[in-house]
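Record passed on here:
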Amino acid sequence: MVFNDFTVKEELLKILPLKKRTRGEDIYNIFKTNAAEIGLPLKKLSAITTDAASTMKGRTNGFAAVCKKDECFPNLMSHHFIHQEALCAKILPFGHVMDIVTSIINIIRAAPFQHRLFKTLLEDYDYKMKNSRSHLASRSPMAQQSSLEPVASLFVNPITIRHEATETATTTARIISSEVGNHELEIVDLKNDIILQAHATDVDFWKLVEKDRFPLLRSVAYKIKSCFRSTYLCESLFSTMNNIKSKNRSRLTDSHLESSLRAGTSACVPKMEALVDEIQCKKSH
C-alpha cells in the first residue's frame, strides 16, 4: 500500500482457505467476498501479482482475467512470475554433471601436492583474466558500441516485443491516458516549475509535488510505484508456514495458522506492556 507521503507498507492482509475447488472463478469469488467484508477499496487496486499457475494466469478463466472482466475492478496490470530455478532442477538432468564435479573435487583434495598444483593453476588463470580486463578497458567506445548492436536491435525492433510485454505496456498506457488533456496541462506546469526541476533527479521527488496542484500526476505516480514491489513477504510466508506446520503441529486451525503467520512475518512491533495490562492477572486465593 502506498500512502500520501509515498511511503510503502507491506503486510499480510488475509489468508483465504479454499476447501474444495481452486479454479480461477473460485479464487475470485472468495477474494471479492472477503474484500467486501473488510472494506477493501477495489477501485484503488493497481496491479495483481500471482504465480504462473493456470488458475491464476489463464487468459479466459484465470483469476486475473476474471477480475479484469468485473466492472468493480479498475484498469489494472497483472504480472505472473515463475520460479525458474525450481523448473531447471526438475527438468534438466544434472546428476551426471554433479557426479563428475564431485569426483574432480575429491581428486584435488585427496593429496596436498595436487591441491598446491591446483592453486597455482588458479593464480595463473587469474593473472590472464586481469590482462584480459585491462585489454577490454583500453578498447575504444566505438568498438564496444559495435559489439552491442545485436543486443540493441532487440529493443529497437518492435516485432521482437513479446505479447505479454505488449499487453503490460498497453495497460500502463490506458491507465495514464485517462483524461489526457488534464494530464498534459499538469505536465506543462510541472516542467515550468523551477523549484521542482531543481529536484527532478531526487529519489523523493514526488514527495515534493503538491497534491493540490498536480492531483492526476500524483495519482499516476501512486499506481506505478505500487506495481514495483518485492515478493519477499510472500516467499517468507511460505518458509514460515513450513516451520509452523511441523509434524508436531499438523492440526492447526485456519485462524490459528493465520495468527501465527501474522506474528512471524509482520514488521509491526507489538506493545507488550499494553497487552499485559489488558489481561487480568490471577490472584492467589
Observations:
- DSSP finds 16 helices and two strands in the chain.
- Residues 154-162 have pLDDT under 50 and may be disordered.
